[in-house]
Records
---
Amino acid sequence: MKKVLFCLLWMLFTWVSYASVVQEISSLEDSYSVLTSDIYLINYYDDILDWIQVSCPAQSIESSEKYIQQLTRSLEGRYNALSLAIQLNESLNLHNKLMRAQSRLNKIWWEHYCALKYILYSMQSRLRDHHIQIMESTGIIKDFDWFELWWAIHWKEAKIELLDFYINELLPYKQQLWFELNFKTWDEFYTNDSTWQKVWDKSQELMKLTLYKAMVELKNAWLFTDTDIQELNWKFLLNMHLSCNSFHGNYKVTETLDPYNNHIGYRTEEVPLDVNVCWNYFLLNELPYHFYKIVIHEMWHHFYYFHDRLGNSDFENICWQGSVCAQTDFVSIYAQSNPIEDYAEHFMHRFLRIIPYTSGKITEKTKHFESFTQ
């Protein structure tokens, strides 16, 4: 009889403890609005995990930790084979699936309930950290608060409207020029979401129209000819990436020689451009301007080889051939790399009227271009 009474009391105590744990965790979840929280606004994981560790059986936490380690290793192996864009999407989707699973645990026995809650919240926390780490590494997180970040990333329709606005502004340039370029296949992440597919496609169209604009404006300024445009046709290769970091270009040219190794001229091999399409609405707004700058810069490399250098350009004598220049004699840090980059950077800044300051050497460089740009 005593044993039966003891078992009944133990079961009652266990049930009360279980009910208390469920009630406390549910209250915590309600206070944090767990089931409606967004991954970018969450800051409660540590509090809930600490409470579960204190209130639940130690053996359930220990077994959970072992399972979490196995699961984490499995996920890391899978994630390492994916691109950052897909990792970003996968971590978000899995995080949200785990969050939805939270609401289905209330009828599970106490020890299993504690273990599963601990596993779910631990994995959600790690997935969120991984998600934010990717965003930081790609430059998506800038100086915005979390609400702005959520709005900037999730409001896809606003991005489409923004891109449409810029595309419509640039459409007149398309009618003035026939010119083609190559696009590298975009990340498969975008094929899984019809709205993001539109953002990607429109970003691609915007890049093409921006390139048209640069060509037309250089031609209208009597700096480029139809021969230049023909030389560059199909030579631009746009590598589209999910990132908010700076763009990169690389003008590749080869010298052509006769059978006696005498210089004949130059030939453009290709002009690969790494174009970073940012998820963030505010930074996406800057996309056309930054791309326009890099295109003008790379096109001026072409001008150097096919026009200026033919006349034995003396630009290098200003700062590079035995002449010492200070940092303030260059329009940018990148211009200090070598004479060729100094040449392209200075012209781009002059063409866009964004030279940051002046000095005697900068004035000399500017005068070098006046015979071409008058």
---
Amino acid sequence: MRRALRWAGCLSWVLASCGGPAPAVDAARADASATDADTGVSPAEDAAPLDAPDDRVVPDGSLRCSRSALRFRGSGVGDIDRVKIPVDDPTNNAPGPPADVGATDFTIEFWLKGAAADNRAGAIRCGDNVDWIRGNIVIDRDRFSQDRKFGVSLGAGRVVWGVSGDRTGDRTVCASAVVLDDRWHHVAVQRRRRDGYLWIFVDGRLEAEGDGPDGDVSYPDDGVPGNHCGGPCLSSDPFLVLGAEKHDAGREYPSFNGSIDELRISRTLRYATTFTVAAEPWAVDSDTAALYRFEEASGDAIVDSAGNASPGVRRYGGNPPGPDWSTDTPFRCP
């Protein structure tokens, strides 16, 4: 509980480390009706209290349906058009929040929707490399020029999953199914700690697997971001970033343009073989490290439904601005 309370109150550190609210980056965005021209952060709309009765909630705490998702625009600049979830506080050596997985087995799964025309990264060269960073990046837990990192991207419309160990090598594995068809798809990636083995599942089917680098790939509690970002990478390295390449390193490392919903991070291997994808949003269980439903539908705070121990922040901006709150979800309400 003490760690959960500590990280639930960390949004002020997140905003400070990101340089405050996301900046306005162009005149077109300043004219957008959904944006505050002074801060560049979309204004929070009136929303129901978090403890308000919700007829979508079933007894186990899960939801029958979903009313909002996030629509990213692939901007790839200015530390905007992304969600940032802190996984370490570089001012101390204390353990990170529960979303900082990699010290044990883990699964990251989510729903994704995008179009090939909006995500033009080509086929990725899979194998003993870090070429996952050359796809349209969906999840980025990179560390600039350092080990113990991982990420998920899309190359030629296919899911790519890459991991770097602690001086134990790199591995990128690639799925075969095309997911950029403007439909919702369930994606799950997994890693086994004892031998680094990697899996990719798409819509419940095992798409790719392979031996990966061994060891702990969580963010080091004593990690020191490198001096590669016009100074130390303090506003990028110690974060799990959604929908963007976290360092804004250039066009050769493109960001994802599409929608994400229902992101669950688990401290276990959820799947061993082909499975039936859930027809409803997940409930929180004992293996859930963090769960992002994206049901806020307004504002910039991203709630972790697993006790809000790993909260995040939406960094809104770009032309067109993103990520937008969208009512297009994989579990639409009646």
